[in-house]
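seq as requested:
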Amino acid sequence: MLIDSFGRQHNNLRISVTDRCNIRCYYCMPEETPVFVSHSELLTFEEIERFVRVAAGLGVNKVRLTGGEPLVRRDLPLLVEMLKRVAALTDIALTTNGLLLAEQAASLRSAGLERINVHLDTLDRARFRQITRRDELDRVLEGLEVCKQLGYRVKINAVALRGLTEPDIVPLALFARERGIEVRFIEFMPLDADGQWRRDLVLFASEILDILSREIGPLEPIQEQDPRAPAAEFRFADGGGRIGIIASVSRPFCGSCNRLRLTADGKLRNCLFATEELDVKALLRGGGSDSDLGGLIRQGVREKWEGHEIHSAKFVQPPRPMYSIGG
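struct tokens:
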């Protein structure tokens, strides 16, 4: 099994299929046109499947497809079909900004996808345009509706930004509550391409919970949640809806982390904030065996640090922004 030197067992793999995106959220993408990796440098579906098969043999049973925006990668349902054939996998999910969901949700469902997280920070059209630099809110909402009709298990992810999205906390929670969707609020992390992150821009988990409790109703922790999951989950005391809080800055969950990350250009990262990577693509394209690949995965887990120390003066922002790492 993939157990690091701190006793953490790793079973969760996040795979970025592209660094390209069709919106330009300012806390992720640069304002100017970013430089993307060439298509020839992206891992092929066959290479991704091979990596997953080897990782599954070492105990990985959960996979999430990310980007960039994963739905801009051509023929993505084919990759889902390929991964569904990896017997050891018990869960395959997708994170998306939702712009292309209405068009692709049915084919992804037919391929075997069951869970989708949709990134949506606001229901306010002007703020959506300000954050994403695009006027596409209606397409995201349409995609959410299609997913609900198709029977997906859906969650909404929302980045919480002080001085900007405080007015969106309650409307998003009510929107999700009315539709039986969990909304997860994520503290703003230092992964923006323009390097503008400051701690005083983080709307902290405790503040979000205070807003929700005051404006909607009391919240109570969900007792049966997975202790390794990044989100602390709550339910409204009246039974109407669930809330998740990912407090990466104020309450890091490094001590229970079970994740590895594979970037679109074939690098293995053992932490979202890692400053070093292992070159999977070079091994895949250089004739390496499955045993070599397994050794590389084990090395990545073995070298994992205790934590990213985002809350301390020792923290070093990784050279890659979020869209290049994979959400």
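Residues 12-156+254-325 form a domain with the TIM Barrel fold (CATH 3.20.20.70).
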